[in-house]
Design goal:
- It is a single chain.
- This protein is mainly beta.
- The chain is built from 1 helix and 11 strands, in the order E-E-E-H-E-E-E-E-E-E-E-E.
- The strands form 2 sheets. Strands 2, 4, 5, 6, 9, 10 and 11 form a 7-stranded mixed sheet that branches. It has a 4-stranded antiparallel sheet with strand order 1-3-8-7, with no helix packed on it.
- It is globular, with a radius of gyration of 13 Å.
Length: about 110
Amino acid sequence: VQLQASGGGSVQAGGSLRLSCAAPRMITSVFNPSTKRWYRQVPGKERELVVTIVGSGDPIYADSVKGRFTTSRDNARKRMFLQMNTLKPEDTGVYFCNIANDWGQGTLVTVSS
């Protein structure tokens, strides 16, 4: 099953972006209860976990994004989202979605100061 991530771009510090991750070929009975994650990676560094949602539970955010990022999901459309506000240059990286251990291709976010 391949996930489709989109929504990346270039913004100035303080700006916002909304990432989307679609799982069109994942069956609903797998999508809905699955663990969903967003990661980001900067070249030369390890992939960093940004947020985790386990089933219908509350999201668990990395300290670095708490209060600025919000994740949500649309089970009917088999999509999840990452709303990123008050972006900082250190948020720059390639963002990956992971649903039920499947990966999207990554979408690049660049935040300039």
